Amino acid sequence: MPRLKTILQSEYPYNISARCINRDWFQIPMEAVWNIFCEELTSVNKKYNFQIHSFVLMNNHYHLIASTPDSNVSLCMQQFMHKTSKRLTRAGNRINETFAGRHYKCILQHPNYFLNAYKYNYRNPVAAGTCEKVQDYTYSTLRGKLNLSNLLVPVCEDTTLNFDTVGTLAWLNTAPDSNKAEGFRYGTKHQYFKSKKDRMSNRPILTEHDLL
Asked: What residues have CB less than 8 Å from 130, skipping those under 6 apart?
């Protein structure tokens, strides 16, 4: 299948992820990996106006939601992936490239799709059995937003969390139905988010409760 050309746009945020080669774990301490990622995200933010909504670092991959007001996602991600990989390699992570090919990104063209990505990403450590509550996970911008740790990444205002912190945390800590989680993963495989229900019925928009 030919690779689709990246859609450059400024209107909607992207859901972005990348995984290590062979699903291997990072081979240096997670705190060091976290610091490298945060520093490189900060660099891209300052240099290319890369607007970061959320970031979650796992043992062998990451989840990122970001916007590009200057329609330059390819440039932003090229620098971020290249410099992060180079620094991890230099720090002793591996001989070859860190990541298994390019990153994956999906345009979240409706606020409800954004909310689904927001919940899925912040819940990833809980789903992986790493912690019991989303706010307990160390390598996530959520803890910094809650003033539970230093916020090392320059993030956009989180209107979802700020509007109702207690309610948002309760929602994030409520596990979704497994079929709905699978539906979300399916949706992010498209350049524009598209669920199986959308594809079958041509329904334009799913509500937040349709998925997570």
From this structure: 58, 137
Q: In what order do the strands lie in the sheet with 14-19?
A: 51-57, 61-67, 14-19, 104-107
Q: What is the DSSP string of 26-51?
A: PSS-HHHHHHHHHHHHHHHHHHH--E
Domains and CATH numbers, the chain: 14-201 (3.30.70.1290)
Please give the pLDDT value at position 1.
Answer: 38
Which pair of structure tokens corresponds to residue 34? Answer: 């976290």
Specify whether the CB–CB gap between 25 and 60 falls below 8 A: yes
59-96 residue pLDDT tens: 889 999 999 999 999 999 999 999 998 898 888 755 55
Q: How far apart are CA 21 and CA 80, in angstroms?
A: 17
For 202, the 3-state DSSP assignment is coil
| Residue listed under structure tokens 């989303």 | 134
